[in-house]
Amino acid sequence: MAVSEENARTGRENREAWKKMSPAAKLGYFRDYYLKYTLLILAVLIFVIAFLKTVLTPAPESALHVVVVGDVWLDADREAMRAALAEELAVPEDDIVISDNYRTEKQDDLMVLMAMLSTDEVDVMILEEEMFKSFCGDGGFAELTEVLDTGTMQALEPYLIRTAGPEDEGTGTERVYGVHFSEYPGYETLSTTGADAVLGVTGRSRHREAAAAFIRYILNRE
Hints:
The chain is of the alpha/beta class and about 220 residues long. The protein has helices at about 1-20, 25-35, 35-55, 75-90, 105-115, 130-135, 150-155, 185-190, 210-220, and strands at about 65-70, 95-100, 125, 160-165, 175-180, 200.
């Protein structure tokens, strides 16, 4: 019984310590203690999922997949966005996927987000700045100059996030990887929480034109 109570107390203490960590500290802790096991599990899952998708019931590929972390959007705003983007991209609305059910305080969600950035299943990710920059250092996001035209980049200039990429460590070089959308009026009216929100286009995205269309939608939103 004493051992059981001790284990329970230790578990509570660990959960409390996790909640108090900053997003970057959580990411570092996860890398140090769980990453190699996660990669092993992920490799097995990818094999199984690929087999099932190929042999049994292949799922249709989305035309755009946006992941929102730590924020919630109203259903009406999300559906209006999906309808507008579907029309612009000439695809069915069901092909526009917007997921806003991820929380950085949950270890399982953090594991899923890291796994997403290692695949080509997500095109756009919106999350708080500190964690965004950590993911940039790991090569999770593409330079926006490779995604957006010059006019859009100029319009977004006051909100651009510059940080080091994976090849820039120790050089002092910073590149444009994100947009601080929580400071942009078109996003402020979309967020229901006021959470810090930086947008990035994932490095493995296969739908960069669709990602650019999403950014323009927010840019033109009142």
